[in-house]
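Figure 2 data, in text form.
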Amino acid sequence: MGLLERMRKEWFMVGIVLAIAGAKLEPSVGVNGGPLKPEITVTYIAVAIIFFNSGLSLKTEELTSALMHIKLHLFIQIFTLAFFPATIWLFLQLLSITPINEWLLKGLQTVGCMPPPVSSAVILTKAVGGNEAAAIFNSAFGSFLGIIITPVLLLLFLGSSSSVPFTSIFSQLFMTVVVPLIIGQIVRRYIKEWLERKKPPFGAVSSSVLLMIIYTTFCDTFSNPNIDLDKFSLVVIVFIIFSIQLSFMLLTFIFSTRNNSGFTPADTVAIMFCSTHKSLTLGIPMLKIVFAGHEHLSLISVPLLIYHPAQILLGSVLVPTIKSWMVSRQKGVKLTRPTV
């Protein structure tokens, strides 16, 4: 992971803490009807900016080289958008009898429903030396799929819990997510050379807007005296999140390294990161739309806010180990290859 990228992610983590602390100190600023007018600036403008920015920065022209590896793409997309949420749902049936805060448990389910992120899985795959083209394709394709599938999964597993009708949710998703994304891609075609020459700070723009969404979400929480988060539940959720990530990374590793899997060691690296990483950038705006007006929205968002830095931290720690495994496997393949 590059130095600038690492610094941006570290500052973003600090930004999350400051945003939540700021919401705690003065929640009246970011509540609906407050000075920031989040019912307009966040619900429509901020979300649209994030997805326009994603459309502008998404290098879809680089995906053609990875397009034909259909088996790998199916594995990643089925794992992250079907197996992952279904397994979490089964796990939560057991956890529902524990004293863990029920809204944090619902938040774990929302994590399972999220698509892969556009950046972190690609950055970590590149750091290891894995199949970067496959990581780019599946991160981008998963993001596109997530626009449609994630809201459906959220409504399927959790219900809307919102006074907003089903059709209104999808019409808002279309106008604030799909349309800006498409416009961003169209604009990119005309200014691609300028973008590649100037390299605008897409990540910094999305992160700044995302911090505003997080801030206003927690303003709603702290302005509601009926919401109480116990430390026991929070500590347990952190432990569960790290356990889920490690377990699923191990599972994808086992599946993709079987003798008849057909995947190379470089493919396995992309599979491990793309199948287990979840998008905060796409996730928070979607939760804001699907659970509009819900008094426990911020508690539902907490597991995703934890999962995001946890996946980067865990992935960064495992990079040297995974890299040494991949190099040794690749050497082993070369040594066993018959000479002509």
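Caption note: Residues 116 and 278 are 5 Å apart (CA to CA).
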